[in-house]
Amino acid sequence: MALASGLGGQLTIDLGALARNWRALDKVSAGSLTAAVVKADAYGTGITQSSRALYTAGARFFFAATPDEGMAVRAAVPDAHIFVLNGLYPGAANLYVRQNLMPVLSSMEMLEEWLAKCLERSEAYPAALHFDTGMNRLGFRLNEAAIVRGRLEQLGYAPQMVMSHLACADQPNHEKNRTQLALFQSVMAQFPGIPASLANSAGLMTGRDYHFQMVRPGIALYGGRAVTGRKNPMAPVVTLHVPILQVKEARTGESVGYGATYTLSRDSRLAIISHGYADGFFRSLSGNNVRPGGKVAVRGRICPVVGRVSMDLLVVDITELGHDLPSPGEGAEIVGPTISVDDQADAGGTIGYEVLTSLKGRYGRHYVGSAD
Asked: Does the keyword Isomerase apply (predicted)?
């Protein structure tokens, strides 16, 4: 593949595929509202463009992690209903009110600050309540449910939603899923008539018992694998091609890269590629003589990374291409139809989430497709 500029890499985001993924998940969650999680710059795809595409596809509820992200969604989609997952930052209630952001309250301190603002303005500003059902991250403790309910009843305040988060939904048969479901149902009993939300992407795919009134897909929207051990049904959304700088011959016994961790066992042809860990290609994707590393596709053929990934460069062995050698300036596929986001994640010992959210390198972004 020849790169458009001939100079730098190109990250392509297919907004049509993003929209199709949302619509597909919306069909699975029929009977529940399907929100869209757009935190971390919409999983590396661009929060402005992706939020607009998801809104056009039909999403009306959005989840950001921080108020800054929430404001970016508000600017992109003025009519959206926006929850801030990290809750109410201390002293920031006025900002949330001005931007019409709904904090996901997870502590008594957050709750009291929000209620104080409501009393000050004589307005019941909307918010969600987050209960910890077993992750020990953000969230009210379960034994605080009655206290929270009592405080809300005292002031006549009704939250927009009660929610929690599954720890092991990517493993559908994990016992913790059923434990968390039961604990969440016990919390819901304290807040009758209030909408509830538990399912992320994997929870949405696990079963209707987890859907409640709203589901919150994230990784599946962007084409990543949500459930371990199953074929990923989602359409890929991102592709990344970067330029080859040089093709060179190397001899048996010579080493490649920093630390001389890879020694060639045969005469080889190597492609030096303008891409490194500064561009989101993890150092853990380095290949040595003990453990294989990541892969790159050159002319549609998978080629192994050899030697350490450095800040700006990586090296792949293209010997198996024979005489079908690339030319300098030609593009190598980092993520695309040959190598998925999850392929790179598996090779690097991580997850597709981290691969996607690391797409901040020195390459241009190009949006294709329509959400209509």
From this structure: yes
Catalytic residue among 157, 258, 360, 367: 258
Q: Which of 27, 39, 157, 262 is catalytic?
A: 39
* Predicted confidence pLDDT, tens digits, the chain (372 residues): 445 444 789 999 999 999 999 999 999 999 999 999 999 999 999 999 999 999 999 999 999 999 999 999 999 999 999 999 999 999 999 999 999 999 999 999 999 999 999 999 999 999 999 999 999 999 999 999 999 999 999 999 999 999 999 999 999 999 999 999 999 999 999 999 999 999 999 999 988 999 999 999 999 999 999 999 889 999 999 999 999 999 999 999 999 999 999 999 999 999 999 999 999 999 999 999 999 999 999 999 999 999 999 999 999 999 999 988 999 989 999 999 999 999 999 999 999 999 999 998 889 999 999 877
Whether residue 232 is contained in a domain is answered as no
Q: Pick from 161, 192, 222: which residue ends a domain?
A: 222
Binding site: what residues are annotated? 137, 311
211 and 270 inside one domain? no
DSSP characters over 200-261: -HHHHHH-GGGTTTEE---GGGGT---STTS---SPP-EEEEEEEEEEEEE-TT-EESGGG-
Q: Is 258 a catalytic site residue?
A: yes
Q: Give the CATH number, domain containing residue 195.
A: 3.20.20.10
Residue 85 lies in domain: 31-222
Claim to verify: residue 100 and residue 215 sit in the same structural domain = yes
In the block, tokens 């330029």 appear at 243
Last residue of a domain, one of 190, 222, 254: 222
Number of domains in the chain: 2
Task: Indicate whether this model's pTM tops 0.90.
Answer: yes
Active site residue 222: no
